[in-house]
Structures are given as structure tokens and as C-alpha cells.
Write a structure and sequence with these properties.
This protein is an alpha+beta fold. It folds into three domains: 101 residues, Alpha Horseshoe (Serine Threonine Protein Phosphatase 5, Tetratricopeptide repeat); 71 residues, no CATH class; 99 residues, Alpha-Beta Plaits (2-Layer Sandwich), CATH 3.30.70. The chain is 40% helix and 21% strand. The chain has ten helices and twelve strands. It has a five-stranded mixed barrel with strand order 1-2-3-4-7. Strands 8, 9, 10, 11 and 12 form a five-stranded antiparallel beta sheet that branches. Strands 5-6 form a two-stranded antiparallel sheet. Strand 5 and strand 6 form a beta hairpin. Helix 1 runs parallel beside helix 3. About 5% of the residues have low confidence.
Length: 295
């Protein structure tokens, strides 16, 4: 490619990047496609076109573009990572393994899905939507995690959902005294077989809630549960996407309250009801509303 052609490709590529940053995917796609047609060895345009298709969850096109970007530039870590994501979304495990290996991540050999133990990670579901929520999840490979909390029903997610997530950190949370990165969800790959049930409790002390949590954990079929009244924290956008910091206490804010809202994850309401009946009979002053199947 001559210097004039490269200059033109670079200029047009920057125009496309500006449109992409503004969320104008159609216009950005048209520019990047024109650049790669005119200058097929101009790697940045292939990578950016791959970003457009990643944003649209058009994984075959994203895989093709990132593979070309990785071919044109050695050790192209951003392209290799997005190639791994696209291959994971498509279940192309050979390509995913190759991409992670070339990136420098040691993944188990084999032909099927990658299975790793990468620990807990906070995943922001619905990152661009009205019901964004950061949920602790178990990371099973560089681009997949299984939701390990009971999310709010408004999130459209359930305990046990297998989600595809991005690789660029989008904020931090603290786990066992250490900051860990938050990753944005890209899509649900496999929905959970569990439902989310909502129950409103009236209790006399925190011990009543702890007893219910213990019963859920020790029942013949373990029932994940979440005390949404105390285990959730509303954050400003700057906190959520960066490092959470303290805000002045809101006027009228309260401490412990006897009215609690809890979420349960289970295949059926019968099991949740059996746990609640035993819990109510376990001590005086305990009451709860009817079970609501929320998701």
C-alpha cells in the first residue's frame, strides 16, 4: 500500500472510529467496509469492523474480521481477545483455544467447551440498559461466567445463567479485600432452568433472616437466596463503572428494618414454600407474603 492510500485509509478509519464512539453503528460499518475493500491489508479497519459486529452480536462476521486483524499484525492482543469472544459465542472451541493460546492464556487442551476454575468475578448485566446490575458470577473461561447470585427479576437474568462477557474492565469491586475488575455482559448463552421467586418477610431480628438463609443452604435441594433489602447497594454511574466510593448518607435513611424482601432461585415454588413453612414455625414473630414467581 502506498503512503497516499495508507493516509486515506487512516483518515477514513478515524472518521469511522468517531462514529462508532457515538453509537452510529450503521455509518461506522459502512466506512470500515469501504476501507477494507480499498485497503485490504489495513489492519485497524478490520479490527474496528470487528468491533461493530461485536456490538451487534453478529459473531460470524466478528470472528472473520478479528481473525483477519490478527493475521495482519502479530501479537495483536485486542484482536485475539475479540476473536476468542466471537469463537466462544459460536461454540468454535478450536478457534477459541487457539486465540487464547496466542494471547498468552493457558487453557485446557481438548475439543469441547473450555472448562476452567477462574474464581468469582463481578459481571454487569444489561450494561447499556435501564436495569443494569453487577452480579457476582463464577468465571469458567476467559469469556464465560455462571451467575452466582439471585439477580433482581427486572434484570431478566437468573441464578445459573451462563453469560458471555467482555474482556475490558468496566469498574472494580472488592473481593476479600482485593479489587477485582467488573466485566460487562455481552449476552446470555444458556439460560438457567431455575425461576426467581420473591417473598416479603416480617421478622423481629437479623437472626431470623440468617436462619432462613441457613435453611435454604441446608435443604435437601439447596435453594440459593438473596436478602435484597441488605445485600444490594445502589450506586451512581461513576461508582458503578469505576471504583465505588462513599456518598453522604441520604436524609431519612434507615438502618435495620423488620420488613425484608428476599429472592429465591428454585425450579419450583413447592420447595420454597416448604422451607418457608418450616422457617415460620421455627420461632415466633415470623411472617411472609405469598410466593411470587417473578421470572
Amino acid at each position: 500500500m502506498g503512503w497516499i492510500s495508507r493516509w486515506r485509509a487512516s483518515k477514513r478509519n478515524e472518521e469511522g472510529r468517531a462514529l462508532l464512539a457515538q453509537g452510529h453503528l450503521n455509518e461506522a460499518e459502512a466506512i470500515f467496509k469501504a476501507v477494507v475493500e480499498e485497503a485490504p491489508d489495513f489492519e485497524p479497519a478490520w479490527f474496528n469492523l470487528g468491533l461493530v459486529y461485536k456490538g451487534r452480536r453478529r459473531w460470524p462476521e466478528s470472528l472473520r474480521c478479528n481473525a483477519e486483524a490478527a493475521r495482519l499484525r502479530q501479537k495483536n492482543e485486542p484482536a485475539l481477545w475479540n476473536l476468542g469472544i466471537a469463537a466462544t459465542a459460536l461454540g468454535d472451541w478450536a478457534t477459541a483455544r487457539k486465540a487464547w493460546h496466542e494471547f498468552g492464556i493457558q487453557v485446557p487442551a481438548g475439543e469441547g467447551p473450555i472448562a476452567m476454575k477462574l474464581g468469582l468475578v463481578p459481571i454487569r448485566v444489561n450494561p447499556d440498559g435501564e436495569h443494569a446490575e453487577v452480579i457476582w458470577s463464577v468465571r469458567i473461561d476467559p469469556a464465560r461466567a455462571v451467575i452466582n447470585n439471585v439477580p433482581f427479576p427486572s434484570s431478566g437474568h437468573r441464578f445459573g445463567d451462563l453469560v458471555l462477557h467482555d474482556g475490558e474492565p468496566a469498574g472494580t469491586r472488592v473481593l476479600r479485600g482485593q479489587e477485582v475488575p467488573v466485566f460487562n455482559e455481552l449476552q446470555i448463552l444458556e439460560p438457567s432452568s431455575h425461576h426467581t421467586f420473591v417473598v416479603r418477610l416480617e421478622v423481629e431480628s437479623p437472626e431470623d433472616v440468617k436462619d432462613l438463609v441457613r435453611r435454604c443452604a441446608s435443604y435437601e435441594v439447596k435453594v440459593p437466596c438473596e436478602d435484597w433489602t441488605s445485600n444490594t447497594r445502589m450506586l451512581c454511574k461513576a461508582c458503578s463503572e469505576g471504583r465505588p466510593h462513599e456518598h453522604p448518607a441520604r436524609e431519612g435513611s434507615k438502618g435495620w428494618t423488620s420488613s425484608r424482601t428476599m429472592g429465591f432461585s428454585c425450579a419450583d415454588a413447592v420447595t420454597v414454600d416448604a422451607i418457608l413453612v418450616a422457617w415460620k414455625n421455627g420461632a415466633p414473630g415470623r411472617d411472609c407474603s405469598d410466593i411470587e414467581k417473578a421470572l
